[in-house]
Recover the amino acids of this structure.
């Protein structure tokens, strides 16, 4: 049985939830998010709002897919509630000679050792702020999934090099450094 789905998702002050047409719409002080219930899995769980919380229950407690969807939906709704109240952010930094990041309008411009600058469009709902150094930046937004996808795209532009230590990193990420060739 799912431990994640067992507990109702408590709604904080200023957050409202509406369930309609295989979607859960969460509105809060930072914005509005829509959590889709996959149409092929919509028949697996029941959703209801009662006593200031969203309760997710499986329709068939013995079915493995129903139990899996139970926990998944509960966590997706909890992420949406946290996003519209507090928001999410990821801190990243770059290490390498001449590496820089800048923001122009809704575009993130990365100089990471290629013959050209890497220009990425910042998705709607996300924002990028450059830190004290031009090699540090923070991505923030209310949608945890969109934030993670965008951060991963940036991370894959220049993966961490275990020999020289160059690349684009998440704050707190540790790479295992390798020793070079021996003579």
């Amino acid at each position: 049985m799912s431990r994640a789905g067992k507990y109702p998702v408590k709604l904080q002050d200023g957050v409202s939830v509406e369930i309609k047409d295989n979607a859960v719409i969460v509105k809060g002080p930072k914005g509005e998010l829509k959590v889709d219930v996959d149409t092929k899995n919509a028949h697996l769980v029941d959703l209801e709002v009662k006593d200031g919380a969203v309760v997710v229950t499986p329709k068939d407690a013995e079915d493995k897919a129903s139990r899996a969807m139970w926990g998944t939906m509960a966590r997706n709704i909890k992420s949406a509630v946290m996003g519209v109240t507090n928001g999410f952010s990821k801190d990243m930094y770059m290490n390498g000679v001449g590496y820089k990041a800048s923001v122009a309008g809704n575009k993130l411009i990365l100089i990471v050792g290629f013959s050209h600058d890497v220009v990425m469009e910042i998705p709607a709902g996300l924002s990028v702020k450059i830190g004290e150094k031009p090699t540090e930046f923070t991505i923030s937004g209310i949608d945890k999934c969109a934030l993670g996808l965008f951060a991963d795209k940036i991370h894959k532009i220049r993966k961490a090099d275990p020999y020289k230590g160059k690349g684009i990193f998440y704050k707190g990420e540790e790479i295992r450094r390798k020793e070079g060739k021996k003579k």
